[in-house]
From TrEMBL:
The keyword Oxidoreductase applies. It comes from Candidatus Neomicrothrix parvicella RN1. The keyword Zinc does not apply. Belongs to the aldehyde dehydrogenase family. This is Aldehyde Dehydrogenase.
């Protein structure tokens, strides 16, 4: 057993604790390292440091942008190191982890661009007689200390989507990474200070248990919270911090419609990637497929062929597509959802509820309906359900019959239907001839209803982390 401890980072210093939390590989259970089990006092210390930096004033915009540019360069140079860290602690297949590390480089670059372009706007004061002789404009000012709470499934890039825009906006951050995947976040924090030149105290990382994180949420000196995770926790945070800015990116059960005029082979290929990438543990993983009855058999044949070729195994193996879920409780939960669906009439044409060597095989369910839990809830595992339709209006209705609303997709060669889908699918994002799992790091990304209340993407996140200040000058 390793006794290696990676300390918290507060005000640029390594911070230990009396107790520690072990970080284990979800795949083989080996201990990867340990982190301090921080306390509320550590949270308070980190917030005090961050508040001091905020009151002292942010570095100039060009300096913030240069820090982010240097971070992009450093991360590029250390790409494989970060990919290996992601793969080990999250059981993310190494090929997928490398993609995440590359995307994080883009997140830094687009955040640097956002820092350089952050500006207010002119106000036409003489549009009213009361404004004659006045010059009016707005400034965008840092909102203050940002409390960031990140999830396990993207231990690098989703941390970057919180930290990099905050740096661009001039906001100091207190980060609470996911308890199961804190090592990559701590590695990022040291890289930002040591390689990119981020001044101490602008990113403080506290490895506290989830119950202690509420001290960050309710702290009077934290101006904004950015959270990615489950709807239950996210909306609880919103309720606990009614006077703060609270940005939520939450769950989903992403639907895809495959119409009768679609490129079926393309749809099957992309839905396979979108449904089983990282074992379905993404909030925009394809979960529900509604396929027109005219092409349903063709689609299922192509889809089953694609899924059957997925390699299940060690995340460190370049050939692996699907590996372990984040822990055994999640594995059992997802297997239970499959068991329940089968008992209610669904058919497992590939996979099923058997767990072998701790791994749940990629599963394709047919004959699902909107009342089943695998349709109504977020499965967050390697399970895709398929249902047939004859009227596209039914497909739109089924896709919208959910409390979630992050992203949805449709495959069709009818441009008019694609545009109709963009208007009728009630989601934060709609993808035409692409799966809803698709995301680039510069686009606005966020949902409606239980899927969240704001948009990520550096240009949008930066605005969430600033506030407008009106300036009036009389001549």
């Amino acid at each position: 057993m390793s006794t290696n401890v990676t300390p918290m980072r507060i005000d640029g210093a390594a911070v230990e604790a009396d107790d520690h939390t072990s970080v284990f590989s979800p795949y083989d259970g080996r201990e990867l390292g340990r982190v301090p089990k921080g306390t509320e006092a550590d949270v308070n210390n980190a917030v005090a440091v961050a508040l001091d930096r905020h009151r002292g004033g942010a570095p100039a915009a060009h300096e913030r942008a240069e820090i982010l540019d240097r971070a992009a360069v450093a991360l590029t140079e250390r790409h494989e190191e970060f990919a290996q860290s992601i793969s080990a602690e999250a059981a993310k297949p190494i090929a997928t982890a490398r993609v995440e590390a590359a995307r994080a480089v883009d997140t830094f670059r687009f955040s640097a661009a956002a820092a350089r372009g952050l500006t207010g706007e002119m106000v036409p004061m003489d549009a009213s007689s009361a404004g004659l002789g006045k010059l009016g404009f707005t400034l965008r000012m840092p909102v203050g200390v940002v409390g960031a709470i990140s999830p396990f499934n993207f231990p690098l890039n989703l941390v970057c989507h919180k930290v990099a825009p905050a740096i661009a906006a001039g906001c100091p951050v207190v980060l609470k990474p996911a308890s199961s995947t804190p090592l990559t976040a701590l590695l990022l924090a040291s890289m930002l200070e040591d390689d990119a030149g981020l001044p101490p105290g602008w990113l403080n990382v506290v490895t506290v248990p989830g119950r202690v994180a509420n001290a960050l949420v309710t702290h009077d000196d934290v101006a904004a919270i950015t959270f990615t995770g489950s709807p239950e926790v996210g909306w609880g945070i919103r309720a606990d911090a009614p006077r703060k800015r609270v940005g939520l990116e939450l769950g989903n059960n992403a639907p895809v419609i495959v119409h009768r005029d679609a490129d079926v082979a393309l749809a099957a290929k992309r839905i396979t990637a979108g449904g089983y990438g990282y074992s379905g543990q993404t909030c925009i993983s394809v979960q529900r497929v509604y396929v027109h009855q005219d092409v349903a058999d063709e689609f299922l044949d192509a889809f089953q062929a694609q899924v059957s070729e997925l390699v299940v195994g060690d995340p460190a193996d370049d050939a692996t597509n699907v590996s372990a879920l984040i822990d055994s409780d999640e594995t059992n939960r997802v297997a239970g959802a499959v068991t329940e669906a089968i008992a209610e009439g669904a058919t497992a044409v590939i996979g099923g509820d058997d767990v072998s060597d701790g791994l749940l095989k990629p599963t394709v369910l047919t004959d699902v309906n909107v009342e089943m839990a695998v349709s109504r809830t977020e499965v967050f595992g390697p399970v895709v359900g398929v249902a047939r339709y004859s009227d596209v209006n039914d497909a739109f209705a089924w896709a919208n019959d959910t409390r979630y609303g992050l992203q949805a997709g449709i495959f069709t060669n009818d441009l008019s239907l694609g545009i109709e889908a963009a208007h009728r699918l009630d989601y934060g994002g709609v993808c035409v001839n692409e799966v809803p799992t698709y995301r680039t790091d510069q686009m606005p990304y966020g949902g409606v209803r239980d899927s969240g209340n704001t948009k990520e993407g550096p240009a949008w996140a930066v605005r969430e982390m600033t506030e407008e200040r009106m300036v009036v000058i009389a001549r």
